[in-house]
Amino acid sequence: MKPISVVVGAAAGLAASALILAPASAQVEANSARYIAANCANCHGTNGVARGGMPSLAGQKKEQIAARVREFRDGKRAATLMHQIAKGYSDEQIDAIAEQIARQSMGQ
Amino acid sequence: MTTQVFSRRDMLKLATAGVAVGALGACASVGGAKGKVVVIGGGWGGATAAKYLRMWSEGAIEVTLVEPNRSFVSCPMSNLVLGGNRTIEQLTTSYDGLRKRGVNVVHDTVTAIDADKKQVRLASGTTLPYDRLVVSPGIEFMYEGVKGMTAADAETIPHAWKAGPQTVLLRRQLEAMPDGGTVVLSVPLAPYRCPPGPYERTCQIAYHLKTRKPKSKLLVLDANPQVTSKGPLFTRVWKEDYAGIVEYQPNMAVNEVDVRGRTFVSNLGDRIKGDVLNLIPQQRAGNLARDAGLVTANDRWCEVNWMSLESIKVPGVHVLGDATLSAPGMPKSGHMANQHGKAAAAAIVELMNGRMPSPPMMANTCYSFVDDKSAVHVASVHHWDAGKKTMVTVAGSGGVSGQDRSQWSIEGQFAWGWAQTVWSDMLT
Fold first, then answer.
1. Radius of gyration over every alpha carbon of chain B, rounded to an integer in angstroms
2. ipTM strictly over 0.85?
3. Which of A99, B225, B242, B314 places its Cα 20 to 30 Å from the Cα of A27?
């Protein structure tokens, strides 16, 4: 029963904030992820398609992208600067960015 | 559950963060938002905002971009032209990519912004109505702080701090200078556009001298007490690569110029004569920002609400890029202006649909070339602090290149790749 009550609680919280701000919540979250993923586009290209030898992210799965960013963040993979950038994003943000880029590059 | 990027609590805080959802929400609807946005200035901030407004509104927002120049010339990488390592053509991109995105690109000059009537007047006589306005005006040079020199004298003593003809002019002067000559570079007191830029320029001019006219000297007069960005990296390069060529003098501002005598006069009264003089003056927000009443800080910069990049003074007008009063730790860089453009575009799409914008996140990366192929970087990540109501650097994020020089040639490849990718991100 516990997992269910957690879900209900979250839904209630959602409803409460919706009443105050009147956002279309799913839309707001999707747009927020789309926006934050564009933080990466300067170096990795619009929708993850890079130019001039920079690593493209397009075509990679969400899990691959998220795992790679965490490796940079945690010092488990050598980098020139990605370890410094990766430390700027929360786990939730890393997952949202990875999901967004994976979905964009699938053409969805 | 869908992934939640920001907590509900963050979203609630926004309600008190001064973000006003415009009345435009009434005439806009999800998926079918109609609305007009005019973007003034097709540089790093404005071009990015124009493109992303078209993308993220899925074509529902009409976007007009007003830019006098026929093509975009990148300031980042333009020091490489001075070093003889790139040509200005390699830094030039047309605005056709934005046209393909459905942006109405107008090559004209804005003569007035009427924020009450929500319209922009152009030199051609055209009036452009808007629902929201994006102003990315760049910088204006404060020659009023330099005795004996006016903006017109930049034809002989270039700033080369806006890429294009000025870059080419300074390059020609460097080419024409005989071996054994002296170049003098004057660096303004911070804040100015591109914190590491003057020191990258030092490296590029020194590279040219070392490879083409090694008896020459480069004297750097810095108004700041020390190198303001990547200091240990630059000073190491000057010592290891450019010893005998670069002479660096901190705490020396140039506040007078004898144009005919080709001489800088310092704040201490020193007279420094040079064969090639490069004065980077102090800067403020572009004139357009001042004329529109957007300048609110020190008579120089535009304060914005970082949630939406909207002016704190003029409703419905969003200001981007170097013209803004930077948040703590936030550099005036092209990369950052691009991130401003995306934050503003995302916020405007939400506002025009009657929704609150999400809190912004911005990352910055600045590469500086220290010779023909090696580069060093500074990077940072900035997020919205609901308590402080501004952007702050994310604790633990960011940093500069390591001291292992073998990595710098790899970074040089990344730096040129970065340039090509970010130009594409703005303009195609």
1. 22
2. yes
3. B314
